[in-house]
Amino acid sequence: MARLCRMLIADAPEEDPRLRPRHLDSSALDTPSLALANAARETLRMGDVVEHMLILQHEVLHGKLGQDKEVRRLDDDVDVLYTAIKLYLAQIQKEDLGEEDSRRWAEIIEMALNLEQAGDIIERMTGDVAASPTRRGARSHRRAGGAGRAARAAGGEPAPEPVGIPVGRSHQRQAPAPFQASFPHSGPALRPRTRRSPASAERAEH
Q1: Highest-confidence range of 12-26, 156-170, 188-202, by mean pLDDT?
Q2: Which long-range contacts (CB under 8 A, 24 or more apart) does 160-169 make?
Q3: InterPro entries this protein is in (predicted)?
């Protein structure tokens, strides 16, 4: 019985790539708790779309082409779901809501708004990255470099030496000569002068 219930409740796979509201049943508006549950499920779908946008943005950052267009399309889907959720919640009679349902109503609309804004930010950042001249130039440079290496490998040519500082004879750094102290010639070595005592001086005089 539980398996049958899961099969009946499980979401059907989406055939249309464009998202449309699925859980916003207008007949449930007379039962606020059920209508809030429907709005919460639709908000979870928004979260799934935003998560997919983040994955595609990561691929764009790593140079995968064409994913920025898919991000724009998904952002349009997020906007569609947000508008539908907002209008659906507006149809619920708030005076019929208790304290708990009122708090839940506010949480759902706030979460939907945050997801819509997150989708806009992801779409804008992804577009900026994809349109960046530096990003396009880096991709072209990598493709050209890879094609050149493949052509050289196919022709048996050795890979070019990396460009660096020349190390030829004229550019080699000369090691300094060992230090040699030189002093002027001072003749015979000088003996240290010793100090004589008074007794020794008297004997020398006599």
Answers
A1: 12-26
A2: none
A3: PhoU-like_sf, PhoU_dom
Instruction: Output the pLDDT for position 33.
Output: 92
What is the residue extent of each domain of the chain? 32-130
What would you measure as the largest C-alpha separation in the chain, in angstroms? 143
Choose which CATH entry (1.10.3720.10, 1.20.58.220, 3.40.50.300, 1.10.1040.10) describes domain 32-130: 1.20.58.220
Contact criterion met (CB below 8 Å) for 115 and 75: no
Q: What is the pTM of this model?
A: 0.57
| DSSP line for the chain | -HHHHHHHHSPPPP-SSS----S--GGGTTSHHHHHHHHHHHHHHHHHHHHHHHHHHHHHHTT-TTHHHHHHHHHHHHHHHHHHHHHHHHTS-GGG--HHHHHHHHHHHHHHHHHHHHHHHHHHHHHHHHH-HHHHHHHHHHHHHHHHHHHHHHTTPPPPPPP----SGGGSPPPPPPP-------SSPPPPPPPPPHHHHHHHH-
> CA quadruple 58, 60, 65, 67: dihedral positive or negative?
positive
